[in-house]
Amino acid sequence: MTSLATDAAPIRDVSEVEDYARQCFRGSTGDQVGAELEFLVFDRSAVGVQVPIARIADALPALPGGSRVTFEPGGQLELSGPAGPLPEAVAALAGDVALARAALDEAGLALAGVGLDPVRPAVRQLREPRYEAMAAFLGMPFGPLMMCSTASIQVNVDLGVRGAERWRRANLLGPILTAAFANSPLSLGRPCGWMSGRQAVWEGLDRTRTAPVPDAGEAADPAAAWAEYLLDARLMLVRDSAGRCRTVRDGSTFRDWVTGNGVPPTFADLAYHATTLFPPVRPRGWLEIRYLDAQSPADWPVCVAVTHALLVDDRAADAALAAAEPYRDGWRAAARHGLADRGLRRAAAVCFRAALEALPRLGAAPGLTAAAAAYADRHVTTGRPPAAGLLELARDPGSRLASWLTETP
């Protein structure tokens, strides 16, 4: 997938921000997919204790599938697989996840696929300048939770030959897929009131950078909408030549910086500003799908495959969008109620049927298609996304939740 070039040239007016935004919609015209998986890591003998990043890193083996290993500020482990056709991308990343799980198991650690830490308070381990400035900007209580306690699946999809169409699909399907894969109903061992508590955390942050990019319909220009979003989002931080980060606290936006009388921002400043914006779908020369809760090691391939199929397969997309259209603004209902909302459940059932028909056309292995069908039977048909099972574990007076966190399949 194509990356965007940046330079030190000053931005002279807002029209150049739109030029940059258009670059974000110019990328590969193929159908590749990549996935970035975040996992919470638990100590098998003490699930309430934060695991030091160094201990996790020391336990990890070399990963032959090519996955990149990084860590989020609270110690969440992220494995980012290389992009490719769906079968190859899933197989390579699945092999690396299996190796990582086995090595961590030998070290007394466990990977848990859940969107919000269900038992531990937020504790930040990484102290890089960016994270210091980000923490100061975001504030309590949602800043620490987002940075240290959340985990997601990010699905990266090529723009294809009709990038605007895939952009619209990705956004319209967001509430349905959020509900179908809701997997974060707990915080500090108690129900948080949301099936996707991770999405609730994002809603509690600065909405100029976490709300969906506005969509004015099929005829709208997504690049123009993205440009307006870039301009109207508040500045979070500004870097100096030494790499230091200064938190911006006055509420000013990037538009204010461009149109002000001081030293103008550069295209490098704009590109960095874009990395501090977290809408549910973000264009970067490909589409980043950012609204999906982390899933168990057994279920994440289903999440990636279904999302990819509904975006790139035209027949699947047509059926799914017709079902999803009435819920295009249903982000909050999807996060709060999941598939307990009957309308969302019906729409999710249509979407899964469409994806299951598309997966063989996309070359998915029979095992992956079967896993997606089993997920639909277990979670979509019943109206019980993974979050419902976690709620039951938390209500048990015993230690079933702790056991699940250290033995999740």
Structural class: alpha+beta
The name CATH uses for the topology is Creatine Kinase, Chain A, domain 2
**Distance between the first and last residues' Cα:** 31 Å
Number of strands: 11
What CATH architecture would you give?
A: 2-Layer Sandwich
| Overall geometric form | globular
For the record, what CATH class applies? Alpha Beta
User: What's the alpha carbon Rg, rounded to whole Å?
Assistant: 21 Å
Count of runs of 4 or more consecutive helical residues: 19
Biggest β-sheet description: 7 strands, antiparallel
Please state the oligomeric state of the protein chains shown: single chain
Strand content: 5-15%
Low-confidence stretches: none
User: Average pLDDT value?
Assistant: 94
Order of helices and strands: HEHEEHEHHEHHEEHHHEEHHEEHHHHHHH
Helix content: 40-55%
Q: How many separate domains?
A: 1
Can you describe what's shown?
The structure is a single chain. The protein has 409 residues and is of the alpha+beta class. The protein has one domain (14-395): Creatine Kinase, Chain A, domain 2, CATH 3.30.590.20. It has 19 helices and 11 strands. It has helices at 14-23, 53-59, 86-106, 129-138, 142-149, 163-172, 174-180, 197-203, 207-210, 222-232, 254-259, 267-275, 300-312, 314-324, 331-337, 342-358, 366-380, 386-395, 400-407, and strands at 33-43, 68-71, 77-80, 109-112, 152-157, 186-187, 190-191, 237-239, 245-247, 281-283, 287-293. The strands form 3 sheets. Strands 1, 2, 3, 4, 5, 10 and 11 form a 7-stranded antiparallel sheet that branches. The longest helix has 21 residues, at 86-106.
